[in-house]
Specification:
The chain is of the alpha+beta class. It is built from 4 helices and 6 strands.
C-alpha cells in the first residue's frame, strides 16, 4: 500500500509517494524479548513505540532496537531509580551550614508534570526540613513546608 501526495507548484503537479511498512506482531514480540534480555522493562513501551523503534532500527541499519530505546530513556528519563534521584538531588542541592539526610517517601509517582520521586530532607534539628519532587527528567521542585 502506498500513500500518494500531490502538490501543485507553479502550475505543475508534483507527486511524491511513501510506502507504508507493515510490522508483524511477531517482530514486535521479538523486540520485546530483546528488551527483556537486556534488562529493560518492555512493559513500559506500547506496541506503537516498539514499532517506531523497529522502524528506526531498520532506518539506521542497527542489529537490535536496544540502543534506540536506551537513547530514548536517556533523553527523556535519565533518573530511573530512587537512589539515582537522591544522588541527583544531593549533587544539585544548595547547602547552607547544616548537613541534611535524604529519604525517598513511597514509590515512583506521577502528576501532570511527569513521573517523580518524593524525597524528604531532614536535619538534626527538625524531622522535615524540606520536601522535594525529583522528576525523572531531572527537574527538582521544592514543596512548601510549614515551620
Amino acid at each position: 500500500m502506498e500513500k500518494i501526495k500531490r502538490e501543485y507548484v507553479k502550475g505543475e503537479v508534483k507527486t511524491t509517494s511513501t510506502m507504508i511498512q507493515f510490522i508483524s506482531m511477531a517482530e514486535v514480540e521479538a523486540a520485546r524479548l530483546e528488551l527483556k534480555a537486556n534488562q529493560i522493562d518492555e512493559n513500559q513501551f506500547s506496541d506503537g513505540e516498539i514499532i517506531l523503534a523497529i522502524q528506526q532500527k531498520q532506518k539506521i541499519g542497527a542489529q537490535t532496537i536496544v540502543p534506540i530505546v536506551v537513547d530514548w530513556l536517556i533523553e527523556n528519563n535519565f533518573i530511573v531509580t530512587a537512589p539515582q534521584a537522591i544522588k541527583y538531588l544531593v549533587d544539585n542541592a544548595n547547602y547552607d551550614n547544616q548537613p541534611l539526610s535524604y529519604k525517598v517517601v513511597g514509590d515512583l509517582d506521577y502528576d501532570t508534570n511527569g513521573k517523580f520521586y518524593l524525597i524528604v530532607a531532614s536535619s538534626l534539628k527538625r524531622k522535615v526540613e524540606s520536601l522535594y519532587k525529583v522528576y525523572t527528567n531531572g527537574v527538582i521542585k521544592e514543596l512548601w513546608v510549614e515551620n
